[in-house]
Design the sequence.
């Protein structure tokens, strides 16, 4: 019964990813552009959703080899669907963050972790020399702005991070727990770091930069 449920959830996530590519013009523009842009063996790839998409990591970290492969609205299955060109390029390092959009689609923490592990296994098999860094999900703050699809789902972020850390340990990849750096005492995204309760302002990206800088070097 559990296997059937997992198949159903995975199928729904695949359909969602296809819908993103087919119906969202921005998603399609970014995804097809990334298909054409080369990745090299010296490159450091930032893979994720809008939080990644919204940052100029190469400028913040002063490293021309950093390539941003974030797309607004992406889910973990979406990362799998577009991981091919990245694996083909055999990058030096890969930083991954994804899952909050899955939560807004009512996907469970367990399912997020399972699909993320599938992604990591794909990268390890296809590009074994690539160092993988799995980053935790960030909190959100519905008091700054109400995200209806995330309402009452703060706990899923915490649950997903616990499971994602287990995935990182099981797969032997580096776990970067960003969550405590961004959460207030109630476990919400710190209000001074966001203007919409979900995405980061400049100061938020500086915190992220400082957290990953040791791994970039």
Sequence:
């Amino acid at each position: 019964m559990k296997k059937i449920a997992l198949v159903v959830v995975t199928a729904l996530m695949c359909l969602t990813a296809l819908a993103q590519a087919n119906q969202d013009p921005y998603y399609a523009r970014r995804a097809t552009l990334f298909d054409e842009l080369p990745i090299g063996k010296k490159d450091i790839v930032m893979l994720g959703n809008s939080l990644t998409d919204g940052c100029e990591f190469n400028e913040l970290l002063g490293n021309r080899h950093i390539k941003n492969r974030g797309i607004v609205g992406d889910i973990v299955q979406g990362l799998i669907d577009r991981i091919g060109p990245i694996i083909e390029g055999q990058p030096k390092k890969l930083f991954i963050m994804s899952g909050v959009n899955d939560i807004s689609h009512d996907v469970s923490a367990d399912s997020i972790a399972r699909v993320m592990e599938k992604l990591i296994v794909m990268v390890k098999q296809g590009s074994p020399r690539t160092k993988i860094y799995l980053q935790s999900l960030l909190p959100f703050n519905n008091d700054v702005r109400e995200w209806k699809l995330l309402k009452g789902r703060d706990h899923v972020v915490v649950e997903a991070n616990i499971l994602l850390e287990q995935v990182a340990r099981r797969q032997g990849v580096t776990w970067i727990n960003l969550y405590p750096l961004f959460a207030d005492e109630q476990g919400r995204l710190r209000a001074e770091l966001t203007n919409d309760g979900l995405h980061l302002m400049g100061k938020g990206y500086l915190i992220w930069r400082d957290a990953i800088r040791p791994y970039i070097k």
Summary: The two ends are 46 Å apart (CA to CA).
